[in-house]
Write a structure and sequence with these properties.
heterodimer; A: 607 residues; alpha+beta; Four Helix Bundle (Hemerythrin (Met), subunit A); Heat Shock Protein 90; six-stranded mixed beta sheet; five-stranded mixed beta sheet; 18 helices; 43% helix; globular; B: 125 residues; alpha/beta; Rossmann fold; 5 helices; 5 strands
């Protein structure tokens, strides 16, 4: 590696490809463990391994290259049926695959190999020796395992290494060797031909750094902002003076609007990736966790092709890992307990994704022990989240498991294991403008449904005005907005509420919430009703300013997030910055108010 | 006179390396294909390809299958092929050379090695 630099770009490409190859390795191992020896599975992994070896060599990652080389040898032997596919074997291979993954990730972070993989290599060497001893029939001559012995030479000696030296071809004159004997087809086809899927993602594609797509989307956002402004001006002009020119201007503006909408859709589309990128890690995770806990679990994946913005793909992995872990740890019972309950010894977890209009729904369903609502209730009262005499519908009650400090270990019928804080999951999902709901039948199973927006970048918002300031409320959370008279407001339990049809909706005065000067002489008498599941909260504002597509600009985490009830900011056509509300904060506030009987929701701080 | 090189490999990393190694090499144009089938398409689309750098281990259509197809087309027979091989598949390299490839370089290779072999082979042609 002396005559070129390992640039960050090369590292990125290497890492991306290596991850795909390693994912393939995990899948091949899982398939072999589950289904037994399948020559197609073995043949399918040889290609990716070989490429990974070559690429690692090109990057100068010799330890990784050598390890993959051994792994190839092992798979050759597995393919020949020379290896007994046993649990200990898979444990060794899975451990090796994990070590390899770590080594690759580390090498890319540190721009050079850190982990030698020597110990792991020794494990494979021992394995290969065992195999060779068991099959002494001369087939022990594995492909050359000593690496580094045949470094490529200068062109002068392009003879192939060692074996069959009579076929040396050293760049002879073109004419003489033009028509060598073409080998029979079966001979050349013997080289593995892995599934077409493995490569389909590569063909006729262009590599673009994601930050460029972010930039592009930002530009589109700006364009849409100015388009809106242009549109407003055009309309004003048309009202003041008609005429042919004005009409033409309006029509041109409309065309710009149509094209920019298409442009926006196209850019969004480019940013979309199949959710497979998130799901593909789970078969391995579930296998390892189930093994640790002596459980038998089948994970079924559905809708892996469902596409969602890459920014969401990057963020949703962790919460999903949390939830899948939760299902394995606390949902699915041990085989013995399942049999005792009249279930199959093997538990099932279904992880599925589907698109529904502007959202993606991710479902995690298990046929485990379910959640005991009575236990949730006790716990909620214990923790002061619920008054002892307060009744809540089961659906809302269950939602309390997402509160902070609510250990699920104590509420599932199966008391084993440690609790995983679902509050962390809820926060991550809400940061993505998503929702999560839970349904459960004790003894039968639990279903979590996560609803995510297709994109984080542009949302439809309702603009509201309070104390001379404008805020944007994500339209997805707005159930309705209405005008009310001061006399309609009733104070219940020290809290202002509004009766809307047959529902009591608690109110939040936005001016007081944000500590704004209350403008006298202008009564705040519009309520924007937000919905989250079955819950409702009414935001009291002075005026409604209409709907608009807004481009979300991230705020510094120090001044945004659920604690401050701000999700971000956007720039208006006239250059003003408008803050976007984080709707979740108002429900968090309500929950706390319910628990502590506060007259007014605090900023949900410290939650 | 070297004008167009067709690089056939299923790894984006290797294509990026070719770009680094060959972009300013004698002002030649680099054309990329991710497998043998794509390479045949590129040969049909692009006129005057003077050299092919060929990986063996590729999905869809591997390097040996590609070589076989290449030899059947009189229009392409004269285009010199360099096999880019990876340790452990020596027998495939040998087979490729028997099938008409003019030489080989083994991964990991350096720019100088690739340049050297290209010089030698194109000079001979």
């Amino acid at each position: 590696m002396s005559d070129f630099q390992i640039s960050p770009e090369l590292l990125n490409i290497y890492l991306e490809e290596a991850r795909a190859h390693l994912e393939g390795l995990d899948h091949a191992l899982l398939a072999l463990e589950r289904e037994g020896l399948d020559p197609e599975v073995v043949a399918g992994i040889m290609g990716p391994l070989h490429t990974l070896k070559g690429n690692s060599g090109m990057m100068g990652f010799t330890g990784i290259k050598d390890y993959v080389h051994r792994l190839e040898d092992v798979f050759v032997r597995i393919g020949q049926g020379a290896v007994t596919l046993s649990r200990p074997l898979f444990d060794r291979l899975f451990a090796g695959a994990s070590a390899l993954r770590d080594a690759v990730e580390q090498a890319c972070r540190q721009r050079g190999e850190v982990r030698s993989l020597q110990g792991e290599r020794a494990v494979l060497d021992a394995l290969l020796r065992e195999i060779t001893q068991r099959t002494p029939s001369g087939e022990g001559s594995l492909p050359s395992t000593q690496s580094g012995t045949t470094q490529s030479r200068q062109s002068g000696e392009t003879g192939p290494p060692s074996t069959q030296s009579q076929t040396t071809v050293s760049a002879p004159s073109a004419s003489s060797s033009l028509t060598p004997s073409v080998p029979s087809a079966d001979q050349s086809l013997a080289v593995s031909a892995p599934s077409a899927e493995y490569i389909s993602a590569h063909s006729s594609t262009v590599r673009v750094d994601f930050s460029q797509l972010d930039h592009l989307l930002n530009l589109v956002g700006e364009l849409i902002i100015h388009r809106t402004k242009l549109h407003e001006l055009g309309r004003e002009l048309a009202e003041q003076k008609g005429g042919r020119e004005t009409a033409e201007l309006l029509s041109a503006v409309q065309q710009v609007a149509a094209v920019s909408t298409q442009l926006q859709e196209t850019v969004m589309d480019i940013r979309m990736l199949p959710i497979r990128h998130v799901f593909e890690r789970f078969p391995r995770l579930v296998r390892d966790l189930a093994r640790q806990q002596g459980k038998d679990i089948e994970l079924i994946l559905e809708g892996e092709g469902t596409r969602i913005d890459k920014a969401i793909i990057d963020e949703i992995g962790e919460p999903l890992v949390h939830m899948i872990r939760n299902s394995v740890d606390h949902g699915i019972e041990t085989p013995a307990m399942r049999v005792a309950r009249g279930k199959t010894p093997t538990g099932t977890i279904l992880l599925s994704a589907m698109q529904e209009s502007n959202h993606v729904l991710i479902t995690i369903m298990d046929d485990g022990s379910g959640i005991d609502a009575a236990a949730v209730r006790r716990k909620a009262v214990d923790r002061g989240l619920l008054k002892a005499d307060e009744t809540l519908p089961d659906r809302e009650l269950l939602q309390l498991i997402f509160s902070q400090g609510f250990s699920t270990a104590e509420i599932v019928s199966d008391l084993s294991g440690r609790g995983v804080g679902l509050d962390v999951v809820l926060k991550s999902i809400e940061r993505l403008n998503g929702l999560v709901e839970v349904e459960t039948v004790p003894g039968v199973g639990t279903k979590f449904i996560i609803q995510l927006p297709l994109t984080l970048a542009i949302i439809s918002a309702l603009l509201v005005e309070v104390s001379d300031r404008t805020y944007a409320v994500p339209l997805g959370s707005v159930v309705e907005s209405l005008k009310f008279r001061p006399a309609d407001v009733h104070t219940i339990n020290g809290r202002e509420t509004l009766r809307i049809r047959d529902r009591i909706v608690p109110l939040v005065r936005l001016d007081a919430f944000f500590g704004l000067r209350v403008v006298t002489g202008e009564p705040a008498h519009y309520a924007v009703v937000l919905g989250r599941g079955d819950k409702r909260v009414g935001l009291v504002v002075n005026r409604l300013r209409g709907q608009q597509e807004v481009v979300i600009k991230a705020l510094d985490p120090a001044v945004s997030g659920i604690t401050l009830a701000l999700a971000g900011a956007t720039i208006m056509g006239d250059g003003r910055v408008v803050l976007i509300l984080d709707v979740a904060a108002f429900f968090e506030g309500r929950r706390q108010a319910l628990a502590h009987g506060r007259s007014r929701p605090a900023l949900a701080g410290g939650s | 006179m070297l004008r167009k090189i067709l690089a056939v490999d299923d790894s984006a990393l290797i294509h990026q390396m070719y770009k680094l190694f060959l972009s300013r090499y004698k002002n030649c144009k680099l054309i990329s294909a991710m497998n043998g089938l794509e390479a045949l398409d590129k040969l049909a689309q692009e006129e005057g390809i003077d050299l092919i750098l060929l990986d063996i281990n590729m999905p869809v259509m591997n390097g040996l299958e590609f070589l076989q197809r290449l030899q059947k087309e009189s229009a392409y027979q004269a285009i010199p092929v360099i096999i880019i091989s990876t340790e452990g598949k020596e027998e495939d390299t040998i087979r490729g050379l028997k099938m008409g490839a003019k030489g080989y370089v083994k991964k990991p290779f350096q720019a100088s090695e690739l340049h050297g072999l290209i010089e030698k082979i194109t000079a001979a042609g």
